[in-house]
Design a protein that fits this description.
The chain has ten helices and six strands; from the N terminus they run αβααββαβαααβαααβ. By secondary structure, it is of the alpha/beta class. InterPro entries: MeTrfase_7, MeTrfase_capping, SAM-dependent_MTases_sf. Keywords: Magnesium, Metal-binding, Methyltransferase, Transferase.
């Protein structure tokens, strides 16, 4: 992002616009994130900027906290970039159990083909609440004419195929059958995330009213796409790679509910199941959306 700003500033200078820039970058993550490890990389980053001999100075700081709450003072930020975060909900949706406590999403850890309509409605309602809140909070923090650039996972509008989390749920059900996971524990577990459709996103943005959409694009990535780019095709390597991607994101929340003892077995099985599914059905796609918004009020 800084390099893009530097290039645009350099192009202005070629057009006789002398405008050296000072850019302040705030990194945001939850308070438990180890920002010290990130900061250790900054000296090499600053050296790279100096080698480019651009007319830009960059100053990096951190702003710990949840993006579901306020992060900055009023009207002080010009650009907010959120990368693969906004599909995470502030909490597991309410309404996933009956009044008597019976699970409505039994056997699933997310919205699946066997989930009743009420489960989807509960997830959508929570996403609508959280995304509306995110837009409202950022509109207070962003300066006039400021921008948002948002990237997150979206729904498979074709309605076919198995998504990443459904495959994880299938794998966990296999372990229930073998007695490795308690069925009651699985029935009580639901992931706090939601992959919205493009229509749902647009409706929320229009209803909240603080931003207008400037540009919107979608793209697809295979579950092993980055690995494929490096020419590694071996089944075991692909399974390890796909499982590692899932584990890096989901393990903490799974450990909190199921304990650490099943994690190695779970993700080894998940990797094998994922690659088998991709090979047999030619599927295994993550749908993504990226769009830019401009503040309107």
């Amino acid at each position: 992002m800084v390099e893009i700003v530097d290039k645009l500033n350099h192009d202005d200078q070629l057009n006789n616009i002398q405008n050296p820039l000072n850019v302040q970058v705030f990194l945001n993550d939850l308070v438990g994130n180890d920002f010290n490890n990130v900061f250790k990389l900054l000296p090499s980053f600053y050296q790279q900027l100096e080698k480019r001999k651009g007319q830009i100075s960059c100053f990096v700081a951190a702003m710990p906290g949840s993006f579901h709450g306020r992060l900055f003072p009023n009207h002080c930020v010009h650009l907010v970039h959120s990368s693969y975060s906004l599909h995470w909900l502030s909490q597991v949706p309410k309404g996933l159990v009956t009044d008597s406590g019976l699970p409505l999403n039994k056997g699933n850890i997310y919205i699946a083909k066997t989930s009743p309509p009420s489960v989807h409605e509960a997830y959508l309602a929570q996403f609508q609440k959280d995304f509306t809140n995110f837009l409202s909070l950022r509109s207070e923090e962003i300066a006039d004419c400021g921008s948002l650039v948002l990237t997150f996972i979206c729904k498979n509008d074709e309605g076919d195929g198995c998504d990443f989390w459904e495959m994880l749920g299938i794998t966990m059900n296999e372990m229930v059958i073998e007695g490795l996971i308690e069925e009651a524990k699985l029935d009580k577990f639901n992931l706090p995330l939601y992959a919205p459709s493009i229509r749902e996103i647009k409706q929320i943005i229009e209803k909240e009213g603080s931003f207008k959409i400037l540009q919107l694009e979608t793209f697809k990535l295979k579950w092993d796409s980055n690995m494929a780019n490096h020419g590694e095709k071996e089944e075991k390597s692909r399974a390890t790679y796909v499982a590692g991607n899932m584990r890096a994101v989901q393990e903490p929340i799974l450990v909190d509910h199921f304990g650490e003892q099943i994690m190695d077995d779970l993700f080894e099985r998940f990797g094998k199941n994922a690659i088998e599914y991709m090979n047999n059905y030619g599927k295994g796609i993550i749908n993504n959306i990226v769009f830019s918004l401009s503040k309107t009020k």
